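Bug #77: duplicate submission created two jobs. Keeping one. Sequence:
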Amino acid sequence: MALVFHKLVSIEEALRLLEEKVGGIRPPEVIEVPLLEAQGKVLAEDVRAPIDYPPFDRSTVDGYAVRSVDVAGASEVTPVSLKVTGKVSVGSAPVGEVRPGEAYEIATGAMIPRGADAVVMEEHVSRKGNLLTVYRSVAPGENISQAGSDVSAGDVVLRAGTLLTAREIAVLAGLGISRVRVYRPPRVSVFSTGVELTPPGAPLEPGHLYDVDGYVVTASLRELGVDAKFLGILPDNYEVMLNSVAKALEESDVVITTGSTSAGYGDMIYRVFRDLGAEVIVHGLKARPGKPTAIAVKGRKVLFGLPGFPLSAMMNLYTLVTPVVLRIMGLEPTREVVKVRARIPFRFQAGRGFTELIPVQLVQGMEGISAYPLMAGSGSIAGIGLSDGFIVAEESREYFDENEEVEVTLFSRSLRVPELNIIGSNCPGIEVVLRVAGLSRSSRIISVGSMGGWLALRRGDADIAGTHLLDEKTLQYNVHMPKVVGLEGKVVIFRGYARRIGLLVRKGNPKRIRGFEDMLRDDVVIVNRNRGSGTRVLLDLRLRELLGGKRPEDFVKGYTYEVKTHTAVATAIIQGRADVGLSLEAVARMFDLDFIPVGEEIYDFAVRMERLEKPAVRRLLDALASREFAELLPKELPGYRTLPETGKQVYP
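Kept job's structure:
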């Protein structure tokens, strides 16, 4: 029988229970130990992501993969019936396709089958045999962590000159890049668990993930000065787990496992702790991410069972494990944690019955520090590697309001303020111009889409916004936007470059797709871009022209399947989840896909007038207009070219 979380406790209550049970947390004898090999070293060259992360669409809950259109309007009063025609388990590739009126049973972390665009939680259904009754509708993409939603293949994830900390190591591990040498107060043993995990550096099989948790937990503890040893990946096998954890507990003061803590049939760390003779004092936190967490005590030894998703494990490490470890080291946690005040740039939901821990990126704006939330799922590694700290939403909170002041807990003891903040549409051309300008190491890029970049300019957070938004009336790019967002007379637009855009299809174009009109065919499934992106605006314009103003979602299969990056479009096509998508020629070349050109779009740089004399802004604009950039851009990015007015002011 599956274990149920009978009582969820707050993080504060969990720490109090632990303190009482061990009779006070006190430091043991301290000895010196070596560092994790990559820990504290400096990168000599840029590191580009070799894969998208996550490498496949996966479910974030236990439930049923469905077509969202099939359950539209479902409720307790008007339930919808579906037929269960398949099942997808963690670590295996789905077989078949979810067709109209059908559903696949799916486990948390398992691959999303073709045809499905959402997952209904098991709490919102009932089932008799293969008949499934659904009592709640779901939106497209709900309860799904999409392939490439965290990191895009080819992105610069770490730049030359970066001092490697636990967060950077987490990103490297999650992308399959192998790195591994500290000072030890408590002896801590660390395990990862899961049949779906692969050690970094090994080939990645379908349905598998590179292990992140073992590396990020070990690295974080060593960063604190702990003697932490990573003892590898344990399979979901009770006897192997029991024997391995028992041996580690004999040699350690603290044992930490990641994974196998949730209320599923295959998650057994709770039983392992209990059968070792330890008293389980916590099994379930009232926190998000991080609910499936176990704490057990045997004598003065402590066992932590952390969640398997990387961001969940990382957050619980900071809020639960770190205070305990610092106390064992003889340190006062409240003195070691650095916090800053910041403002939220836009309204978003948070809390709603759980204490929610949200990673943020900090930007020094005109009116102080802004905290941009990283809306990443609990399986995110970008949420670890790109964030400066996190904010806490109390369980009684419903949302954070725009411009609300919050307290940010920093991951590091100092806040790194970049010379240049570029906020807006993501484009690999930005990395080229930054390199020419000599600003790669001192700039921050936050990808929120073209419209998000304009809003960041309005707030005063961005020095520069990257934008490629088409005016449907004039068919000109970007120059209409100052009026749209109320920045007339406050911004200057500099011409960037042209990039060839077209339809990406599988090698050999097996479905003989020729243009946008083929997206209306019954046998063609598209992958779409997110709302607010310039690519989405262009696609919607072309589809409306074909449909005479009718809603594309009613006629185009896959229209509601949205991804955040160009490389995620390519990944969806390669993995067979879609047949075609609108993207860049450079991405088609990168992934060896066929490319059907449909035109060029203009990518420009918008700057607030008062930032024009900022040295870093001036250096980037000079680089944009340089001959070096004009020669380098098409060499590095096929389909890109500078224009006669590149680097020149085009507005006002």
